[in-house]
Design goal:
ATP-binding; binds adenosine-5'-triphosphate; globular; Rossmann fold; Helicase_C-like; seven-stranded parallel β-sheet; 13% strand; 469 residues; 2 domains; alpha/beta
């Protein structure tokens, strides 16, 4: 099998890989690194935990070492924690270069970021919202000369999810040069392939691992059918069972909303579990602190919303529990991908209520695999049911008394004022944008209906390890 040197990487980068314990390139690295070094745009679709980050960091560092200047590369990613994680990979692999990076994410000091940007860092790693804010409000830096634009979790950046990045992306794309190399990576690229292809037009190279399933083999995927009202007792039971069976353990529990996330965290702590929450209603500093404490095993359980479902690389995680069944198969793929990374074993357990069975079928169809039934001692769950439900109710009351949701609104307004914006004007602007988007969507649907008889355009041909897009 080819080593890093055979991919065309310089000896100093090969040595960096060796020092970090990366012995052999993973398939996505084997496929994408040579194409990127050749100067081609690249769309890389590979399973979670398969080393996509190094697949773009390594060739970018090589090109940067040949012609170092700032700003050389811009990386966009959907979450703040992910931005820090990517920056860390750049820093560690790029140490011999004396790499200067700058992280531009929301929830952190904007003035300090503007100052850092003005110092021409080699690499800027950003979430779209905050970077677009900088572009709109300051002229102390320019992205006009970047050689590389990377969209990590590219499908998420382009889809219109609960955070819609499209307006910010437009602003950013208007600020980068047309002549550049564009690199798009995700474990679930195919849904937005057509939009992504519009961004990568320079001899695009499409790489996708051909495999029967879209989740990794080392992942044991289970479900438990539970009535809605006993769900929390099942969660507690599963966590207790896991804790009893393992010395060294780490579990991520995914929840549907910030409020559930917070309530479950409070409930688990009251029941004696070492749990910490991560959701978007927390202050950014608290988010980073929670993640750091989980990574260093101070807390063994991370209760998170989907803000943690993509990209986070915490090798110690052995179990992912879905407290709710994800509404979209791709969310399931990313969530369960927080375990069984880089060849390790892992387990995912999804709590499924009677109302979610159709969602499980959709997940199974998409991932190309059946979820197995997990055997649970029902009697043991029923034993703790009353206690769990009482504690949960107490926590809910406490949270309501603390005006949980309202704080977010106040914080949002405060943040906008700090950023020099008028909160009321912003709300109006957002409402107008939503209106335009709805109108565009209706128009798109109308056009699609009109053209429906022609059938959808065909996706590009693909082959393992090589392909054109
Ligand atoms: N060649 C390699 N050999 C061994 N480990 C590797 C190699 N390349 C990367 N890794 C490690 O694999 C882990 C997962 O890599 P990475 O976070 O890039 O995955 P990913 O494909 O981006 O996953 P996701 O889709 O979840 O974001 C990291 O801890 C990384 O250090």
């Amino acid at each position: 099998m080819a080593g890093f040197a055979e991919l065309g990487l310089s000896s100093w980068l090969v040595e960096q890989c060796r020092q970090l314990g990366l012995k052999q390139p993973t398939p996505v690295q084997l496929g994408c690194v040579p194409a990127i070094l050749e100067g081609r745009d690249c769309l890389g679709c590979a399973k979670t935990g398969s080393g996509k980050t190094a697949a773009f960091v390594l060739p970018i560092l090589q090109k940067l070492s040949e012609d170092p200047y700032g700003v050389f590369c811009l990386v966009l990613t959907p979450t703040r924690e992910l931005a820090y994680q990517i920056a860390e990979q750049f820093r560690v692999l790029g140490r011999p270069l004396g790499l200067k990076d700058c992280i531009v994410v929301g929830g952190m000091d904007m003035v300090a970021q503007a100052l850092e940007l003005s110092r021409k860092p080699h690499v800027v790693i950003a979430t779209p919202g905050r970077l677009a804010d900088h572009l709109r409000s300051s002229s102390t830096f320019s992205l006009k000369k970047i050689r590389f634009l990377v969209l990590d979790e590219a499908d998420r950046l382009l889809e219109q999810g609960c955070t819609d990045f499209t307006a910010d992306l437009e602003a950013i794309l208007g600020a980068v040069p047309a002549r550049r190399q564009t690199l798009l990576f995700s474990a679930t690229l195919t849904d937005t392939l057509r939009e992504l292809q519009g961004l990568a037009t320079n001899r695009p190279f499409f790489w996708e691992a051909q495999a029967p399933a879209r989740t990794v083999e080392q992942l044991d995927q289970r479900y438990v059918l539970v009535p809605e009202r006993v769900k929390d007792a099942y969660l507690v039971h599963l966590l207790q069972r896991f804790q009893d069976a393992h010395e060294d353990w780490a579990v991520v529990v995914f929840t549907s909303t910030c409020k559930t996330c917070q309530v479950l965290c409070m409930m688990l702590r009251k029941l004696g579990f070492p749990a910490v929450a991560l959701h978007s209603m927390m202050k950014q500093k608290e988010r980073f602190a929670a993640l750091a404490k989980f990574k260093s095993s101070i807390y063994r359980i991370l209760i998170a919303t989907d803000v943690a479902s993509r990209g986070l690389d915490i090798p110690t995680v052995q179990l992912v529990i879905n407290h709710n069944t994800p509404g979209l198969p791709k969310i399931y793929i990313h969530r369960v991908g927080r375990t069984a990374r880089a060849g390790r074993q892992g387990q995912a357990v999804t709590l499924v209520t009677q109302y979610d069975i159709h969602l499980v079928h959709a997940i199974e169809e998409q991932i190309g695999k059946r979820l197995e039934d997990l055997q649970v001692e029902e009697a043991e769950v029923l034993e703790i049911l009353t206690q769990v439900n009482v504690v949960r109710r107490e926590c809910e009351i406490k949270l309501e008394a603390a005006h949980f949701g309202e704080k977010k609104e106040v914080n949002k307004r405060k943040q906008l004022i700090l950023e020099g914006k008028d909160p009321d004007l912003e709300a109006k602007r957002k409402a107008e944008l939503a209106k335009i988007r709805r109108k565009n969507q209706r128009f798109k649907e109308h056009v699609q209906q009109t053209l429906g008889h022609r059938g959808p355009p065909k996706p590009p041909p693909r082959a393992e390890g090589e392909g054109e897009a």
